[in-house]
Amino acid sequence: MRRVRARGAWAAAAGAMALALVAAGCTGKDAAPQPTRGAAVSYLTGQAGGDGRILAVKIDNVPAARPQTGLDDAAIVYAIEVEGGLSRLMAVFDGEHLPPVVGPVRSARETDLQLLAEYDRPALAFSGAQSELLPVLRSSTDLTAVTGTKDFYRSHDRPAPHNEYLRPAAAAAKGGAAKDIGLRFDAAVPAGGTPATTASAKMPAARFSFTWNGSRYRVSMDGKQSPWTADNVIVQHVAVKESDYHSRTGFVPFSQTVGHGSAQVLRNGRSYAAAWDRPAASDGTAYTVGGHTLPLHPGRTWIVLEP
């Protein structure tokens, strides 16, 4: 069984000064050097200060789980389709910028394995997984699985399963160091694109919209505004097939983030029709317009893997 969907992914970024290449428009691939680490610039946000060890956390995203906790401290937030066409979030943090609590935490999927392979063995915190998938996660050389430790706890203000939270410091310490995942940043607005103050993305049973307020994007989910904001939004169109790890509840989507396809990139109130390319699981993801690297605004990015 095969379906086509859309998604968003990224990779992190370059020395602040090194990326002033975009004076007149999008940076060409041949003009986009690897990030210079002497400037201590984050691979994930393009902001000064560098990165710590990397932690990804699977976050519930049904109405009973909202508002979530800690998302505005994430460097990158992925929105991923799960069973029933619903969405789940994966928040990626660096260990130097952690909230005290993250959640509600939910279960992992096969999509997470491929998506996180472009990082350097990050920690992945989750509440559980399908019985055949769980040992695969625990033995993976692409990530360090973190589940069921004393740092997870249940809150009494919500019903299960929407009430499991994580104190993330110990989990983050198990993650690999930050690496270049392909993202490039520049505060200068690239030439091209079109003015766009709103944009949307959808899954079969989930909707996202993003509204530019003059400084960042306000995030709404299923028609309701959330507390969360983003400096950049990527709607990345991806192919979706059925996961090898099945569920009694029906079709389990596997969003394929290795390959290439189209994307919509939003920054500074403008929309760019872009292409994404990730040749292999160990490679970062490039976002280009007309064959030229499209830099993001330094800051937090939401990537929607749209079917």
TrEMBL record:
Occurrences of domain DUF3048 (ranges): 50-173, 206-303
Organism: Actinacidiphila bryophytorum
Keywords: Signal
PROSITE patterns cross-referenced by the UniProt entry: PROKAR_LIPOPROTEIN
Signal peptide boundaries: 1-23
Pfam families (alphabetical): DUF3048, DUF3048_C
Protein name, per record: DUF3048 domain-containing protein
Record flagged with keyword Signal: yes
UniProt keyword DNA repair, yes or no: no
